[in-house]
Write a sequence for this structure.
């Protein structure tokens, strides 16, 4: 049976001159008939990962294997063929063509990939029956509920009977009744032996998943005790892109906050002195570090977990420049 | 002089008055039954003094009485498509009548019409081939013809802009649709091809509509409008080429559509 293997996947973008890594060495496997949920906040790389798995985005490094196919090695027509025959997509915004009926929406990709009109429409009828929308086949998207539109989108994604179905926030725009119908459908498809990967930031969907991949660190489970750290001048406290776990207050010395640009140069953002803190936004929000912190002299820092920082420091610390704290997050 | 047939004729500009209205005409005097006599669409050619054949565009009918250069004539026939300089009608009468009206003598003619090869010429005469005559007759219209050609070119440009805009806007407003289809593995070739087909169908649809509309509009023009058969082949072919060129920007837009746009709006 075909399985999916993701190995040390890295995606790096250059944005405004500095590098961002939404995916940094991600590895996992998915077995046939497994439903995997990618859980994480906006910006955590869920959609980026789906794009890589679907052959839409070429990763910076790492490999993706679907069965014997190394997706990351494909290009041109081979990649089109992969997307056409081995992967199905379900998009958050449904992305149905408004001027076409449900039946035509499902048939359209099949028609454009060379199937005859009769064969494409016949297959569309089968798929709409599978998602329970036979009686809505002749309706345009504007005449369908959100849940029905998403089921049409699922039917469209199944056109070539793919082994892998990628669903990006499939329930994001739906009410709870519509969510139920989509969840039921996804479970049925999973039971047919397909690999299904859904991205979501809604933890209510997690019980239906066979496995959950956290795309951002779960800080609630981490509670590092408060402790003091010393650094010599020039030492790095943390690097841009590192996981954000702790928040620091400066006890002695000077800390330079710099943004590392794509060409390796540093852009100074701020210089912090005793009594000021840094690193709180990334730690509170679960984002990676957006800048590097470097000891500008010999420094002594106190490191707090976000919970302790909030309790002990935030309400007692003298005012901190808002810009400064934002830049050092 | 040579030639199988030769016949004297008078050709001159004159004026026709009927129902109190005067208009410019080209007067042709010919020997009855000889070269220069018109083919009539109604009635018969002039055979006797006082008889005249008018072009249909004059609006006259057979048996009407008209005045040409002060002389009274009875209309005995009508001719069709016999105009010069984009609408000045010919009138045909006997040579004798024309000589009296134009020269007041029967000793002078304007031309000698010859059917066949001219082998020798009397002193002072020049042989002019009918093709050269036709070309010479069109010279006064060169400016008008150029203007029509210019308008035609401008109309083609307008058509190209309209088709280009339709195709480009069509591509622009459906970028996400194209991105979704690309994400699903539909090739650029198929997507661009479908847009090209749309452009060609728009152009050919316009040609088809124009072909029908001209049937209604052409008879209403003050001048005779003739659409040659070859136009029905040339214009669709040119329209297809023009549509593909005009639609190139839209097709390029589609070719460059990023399939990742299919995820636009998602947050992760």
């Amino acid at each position: 049976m075909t399985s999916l293997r993701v190995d040390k996947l890295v995606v790096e973008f250059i944005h405004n001159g500095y590098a961002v890594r939404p995916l940094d060495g991600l590895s996992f496997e998915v077995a046939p008939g497994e439903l995997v949920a990618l859980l994480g906040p906006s910006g955590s790389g869920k959609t980026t990962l789906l794009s890589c798995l679907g052959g839409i985005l070429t990763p910076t490094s790492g490999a993706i294997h679907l069965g014997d196919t190394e997706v990351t090695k494909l290009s041109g027509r081979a990649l089109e063929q992969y997307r056409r025959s081995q992967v199905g997509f379900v998009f958050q915004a449904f992305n149905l063509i408004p001027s076409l009926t449900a039946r035509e929406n499902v048939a359209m990709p099949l028609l454009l990939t060379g199937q005859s009109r009769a064969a494409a429409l016949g297959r569309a009828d089968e798929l709409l029956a599978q998602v329970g929308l036979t009686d809505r086949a002749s309706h345009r998207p504007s005449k369908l509920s959100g849940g029905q539109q998403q089921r049409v989108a699922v039917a469209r994604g199944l056109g070539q009977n793919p082994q892998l179905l990628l669903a990006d926030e499939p329930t994001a725009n739906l009410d709870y009744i519509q969510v139920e119908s989509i969840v039921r459908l996804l479970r049925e498809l999973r039971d047919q032996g397909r690999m299904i990967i859904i991205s979501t930031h809604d933890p209510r969907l997690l019980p239906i998943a066979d496995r959950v991949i956290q795309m951002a660190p779960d800080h609630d489970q981490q509670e590092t005790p408060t402790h003091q750290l010393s650094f010599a001048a020039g030492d790095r406290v943390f690097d841009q892109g590192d996981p954000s776990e702790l928040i620091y207050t400066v006890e002695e010395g000077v800390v330079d906050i710099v943004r590392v640009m794509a060409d390796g140069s540093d852009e100074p953002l701020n210089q912090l002195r005793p009594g000021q803190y840094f690193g709180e936004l990334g730690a509170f929000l679960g984002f990676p570090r957006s800048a590097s912190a470097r000891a500008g002299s010999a420094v002594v820092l106190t490191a707090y977990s976000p919970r302790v920082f909030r309790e002990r420091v935030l309400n007692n610390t003298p005012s901190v420049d808002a810009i400064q704290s934002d830049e050092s997050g | 002089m040579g030639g199988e047939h030769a016949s004297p004729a008078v050709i001159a500009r004159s004026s026709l008055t009927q129902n109190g209205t005067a208009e410019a005409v080209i007067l042709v005097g010919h020997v009855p039954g000889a070269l220069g006599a018109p083919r009539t669409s109604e009635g018969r050619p002039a055979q006797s003094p006082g008889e005249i054949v008018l072009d249909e565009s004059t609006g006259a009918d057979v048996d009407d009485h008209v005045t040409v250069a002060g002389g009274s004539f009875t209309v005995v026939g009508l001719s069709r498509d016999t105009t010069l300089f984009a609408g000045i009608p010919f009138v045909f009468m006997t040579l004798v009548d024309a000589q009296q009206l134009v020269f007041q003598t029967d000793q002078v003619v304007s031309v000698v019409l010859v059917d066949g090869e001219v082998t020798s010429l009397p002193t002072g005469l020049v042989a002019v081939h009918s093709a050269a005559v036709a070309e010479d007759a069109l010279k006064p219209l060169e400016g008008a013809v150029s203007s029509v050609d210019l308008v035609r070119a401008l109309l083609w440009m307008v058509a190209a802009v309209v088709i280009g805009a339709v195709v480009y806007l069509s591509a622009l407003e459906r970028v996400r649709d194209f991105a979704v289809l690309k994400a699903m593995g539909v090739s650029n070739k198929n997507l661009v091809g479908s847009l090209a087909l749309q452009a060609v169908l728009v152009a050919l649809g316009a040609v088809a509509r124009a072909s029908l509309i001209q049937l209604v509009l052409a008879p209403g023009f003050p001048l005779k409008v003739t659409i040659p058969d070859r136009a029905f082949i040339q214009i669709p072919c040119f329209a297809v080429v023009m549509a593909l060129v005009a639609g190139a920007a839209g097709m390029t837009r589609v070719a460059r559509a990023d399939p990742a746009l299919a995820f636009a709006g998602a947050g992760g």
